[in-house]
Amino acid sequence: MRRLIVQEAARSAAASPSPSKRPSSDPEPICPKPARRGRQRLQIAPTPKRIGCFGYSSPRATPDCLLWYHHLPFPFEPALPKPAKLRLCDARVLPIPRLAAGLTPERLLAATTNAHAIFQRVSVNGQDQGLTVGVRTPTSNNPLQNVQDQNFACNSGFQSPISSTVINVPAGAKVGAQYQHVIGGPQFSGDPDNPIAASHKGPVIVYLARVDNAATANTSGLKWFKIYEEGLNNGKWGVDTLLQNNGWATFTMPPCVASGQYLMRVEVIALHGAGSQGQAQFYMSCAQINVTGGGSKTGQTVSFPGAYSANDPGILISIYGSSGQPDNGGKTYSIPGPPVLTC
């Protein structure tokens, strides 16, 4: 990952900039200059009726900015039909990948965002089980983006030692799964991207896979069925619920699910850059649970990897409507995977 200074300015201009060079009318940077050699500058350049801000967790209020970067052909514009309101933004240091010519708007939005999250805590009927207790918690908050990744079931690179706890969950119990920006909570005081960036709109999904011993089970070859999902309802995404509840997704363990030990796979799919193939972001890990007092049912099972395709309509999708809002244009959103188990 390279680090660069994002320099942000917003103003109108009388004419479109020439594609061959940076316009001489660009304003002087309003933000601090890079202090070290080797850093590059990403600047907003003027364009008629198109003003915006490219912030810490892009896109912020509006993603319709014109960006100038010397590795990119100029102009490069994530085009949206409605102009943004004039505003000034702060400079922020962001870790981002090296950019290359031909980068799409969705890929740029995904690349310049470092507002990831980790599932790391479980509650049962309101009782917090403790930080990383009973959870195979990855130390990195980076997403997986290849749906064929061999670690797509429960992720990898877990905190060591992995918890040996298997959490007892009565069938019918209220279960909570908490995401935070990094293990333990915010990355720093006032972290605006805890539990996850508001830009990372998408569904929250929970699966179970039956195992003999949840503390030691290998994830290879497991069969998963879905017990919960929250996608897009009346303009509100599953991720919005996380934001409103300090990272908690709360759901009911189906009362009819068969008793026994399971891995519980909790997943957020961030769709802010998903208009290009391979740019949806998957944040998942697994808790180790023992369901008690249950019935005998399981749902339709799938495998990970294998359950999702990179071209699935809920994975390869631009969620921005004509107004520039992440509302999927008012259309129904198709959550990936099988149907939820019904009792």
Automatic annotation (TrEMBL):
EC number(s) on file: 1.14.99.56
Gene Ontology CC annotations of this record: extracellular region
Broad EC category: oxidoreductase
Ranges for domain Auxiliary Activity family 9 catalytic: 116-322
InterPro entries recorded: AA9, AA9_LPMO
Cited Pfam families: AA9 (PF03443)
Reactions it catalyzes: [(1->4)-beta-D-glucosyl]n+m + reduced acceptor + O2 = 4-dehydro-beta-D-glucosyl-[(1->4)-beta-D-glucosyl]n-1 + [(1->4)-beta-D-glucosyl]m + acceptor + H2O
Protein name per UniProt: AA9 family lytic polysaccharide monooxygenase
Organism the protein comes from: Botryosphaeria dothidea
